[in-house]
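Need ABC transmembrane type-1 domain-containing protein's 3D structure for a figure. Predict it.
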Amino acid sequence: MVILILSETGWMAQTLVAAGWLGDTSNFPVWTRDPEGIGIIITYVWKEVPLVILLLFPVYASIRPEFYDLVNSLGGNAWHRFTTVDLPHLLPVLVESFLIIFSFTLAAYEVPALIGTTFPEMISVLGYEWFYGSSWDDRPLAFAAMVMTSLFLLVLTLIGYFGLSRRRWRAMRGDGA
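Structure prediction for ABC transmembrane type-1 domain-containing protein:
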């Protein structure tokens, strides 16, 4: 969809040319297959924002309205409601969502291969080419790249887990949150 809508010959470029805002489709900015990865970013934002919203709906539904009333009765404003009620409930889900989406995005092959450039390549595309390329000498590079990516994601996940667990343990012991 990003290619069909945002490429130089896509729907948006054709619409702008038909409306007279652009003289030619070559004047449309390059958003797909660009070195900055704008098309990849747009694709993942388009794909993952609805997922995060769906993950946050149950959390918002579980927050008791009395918490907001308490903040209001103590003279809090919208910022206080967010920092004292919403954020403590949302933070674990946001950290988990970030880890899931970051892991998926870092290791995904299809979007960077379709929308990305040939240089610089994302690690997943490079690993795929090393593994399935014509040279057997590159296969160890593919294994090393994917193992290092997996170890990086594991360390990031452990940091997130222990960061969230530390607050939970402190709250359970009564040391404050």
